[in-house]
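tl;dr need the bound structure. longer version: we got a ligand (nicotinamide-adenine-dinucleotide) that a collaborator sent over and nobodys looked at where it sits. i said id run it. heres the input, straight from their email, havent touched it
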Amino acid sequence: MANPLNGADTGVSIISEAVCEAVVGRGEAFTAVESVFAAMAKGDAYNFPVVREAIGHADALYGFKSGFDRAGMVLGVKSGGYWPGNVDKNLTNHQSTVILFDPDTGKMKSIVGGNYLTAVRTAASSAVSIAHLARKDSKVLGMVGAGHQSTFQLRAAVEQRDFEKVVAWNPHPEYLPRLAAVAEELGLPFEAVDQQTLGAQADVIITITSAFEPLMMKDWVKPGTHIACMGTDTKGKQEVDPELLAAATVFTDEVAQSISIGEAQHAVASGALNVDDITPVGDVINGIHAGRSSNDEITLFDGTGVGLQDLAVASSAARLAEEQGKVNFVSL
Ligand code: NAD
């Protein structure tokens, strides 16, 4: 029935975590993230300032990431954060929900579970960087990190090149069997190694930890490596040697986040890296920047995680769920 305050009531679609998992695979996430990185680089999509606050309860960090993609006509917000005590309640520590709005009217369109989508969009981000920046002949994938995100990262990365082996190191070695199990499932030999061996063998390295100090030093990484730094998403976090950024050609999802909360924050602060030398990966996708220029060049992707990635995959989830009849509507 028409509502005098809301106009024709088409309802709000509710997309559960289970439905997100059923409808958004790695391919859909890759396409959504690649498209929104391209739109950001063209100035067609904007992330709004991030809010992230300690709420003074349950040690929780809570915040909002929002933005508008004019190219995809996606407007919304991801809200959530980090509750360290959740693990004792058998819940994931990272909790998030996406709300999408109609950009023409501001009416709420969809409420979408954001936990699975966060992992799949973060893996898609490093996968996009590998697709556009790694050497075509990359054979060995190096994983630094073995937490919740790491298996999503591994699955997405191996689809981008003909990898023949996975080498891995984690500050907590007891987590490594979970990566080993996924590598085995993917039919790839897996070896737990030290950091120097990882750098010496890997053609592509993904870092996905909660580190606050460098875990990979410049001298350990061989020429021609592509490294995707995915763990640093907060001021103070750090996964690699700032000298590695100085030696590499540096790309990112969004330059403003890269220098404030991303891996480049340290190299820029120390003067080892100039902000003008950081290129949005969207410029490579759009053909504005050539990307890798030689087989000896080290390329580094600073994947900080932007709200528009969340909105892009949530919008895909809402559309696909509706197309497949997997959606519930409620009236407000
Ligand atoms: P998790 O808690 O499941 O795993 C944490 C990982 O970091 C493990 O490998 C652990 O051994 C390691 N670790 C923990 N404390 C450490 C320390 N003090 N020093 C070094 N390593 C440490 O977390 P997760 O969900 O796998 O997330 C990993 C990281 O990725 C987090 O920092 C998270 O904030 C970040 N993240 C980034 C994005 C993005 O878009 N860039 C998205 C999601 C998560």
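gonna send this back to them w/ a short note. The longest strand covers residues 61-69.
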